[in-house]
UniProtKB/TrEMBL annotation:
Coiled coil: none
Source domain of life: Bacteria
Ranges for domain Nitroreductase: 4-71
Stored InterPro entries: Nitroreductase, Nitroreductase-like
Transmembrane segments: none
Name recorded for this polypeptide: Nitroreductase domain-containing protein
Length: 91
């Protein structure tokens, strides 16, 4: 893959971040921790917030994706499924 400029490198790094995020989410599930991937947020505002908090240096780092981790407030409701025979008829 030819990474010709900073934009191409950032796009590639974003895709790589999703791999790491998926692994973190899988590991969290094994520990009984719920997670939710988040995108569609205002990237510029989030980068500025993190810079203002001195968490990142925006000259070198940018946010690609976010993920939240935590414990659910309520237990999972049992799934209700119809019997398979009610869904189709074999002819």
């Amino acid at each position: 893959m030819a990474l010709k400029d900073a934009h191409d490198r950032f796009k590639w790094a974003c895709r790589q971040a999703y791999i790491a995020m998926a692994n973190m989410m899988t590991a969290a599930t094994e520990l009984g921790i719920d997670s939710c991937p988040i995108e569609g947020f205002n990237y510029a505002q989030m980068n500025q917030f993190l810079a203002d908090q001195q968490i990142i240096d925006p000259a070198h780092w940018q946010i690609a994706v976010m993920v939240s981790f935590g414990y659910r407030a309520q237990p999972i409701k049992p799934k209700v499924r119809q019997p398979l025979g009610d869904l189709y008829e074999e002819v």
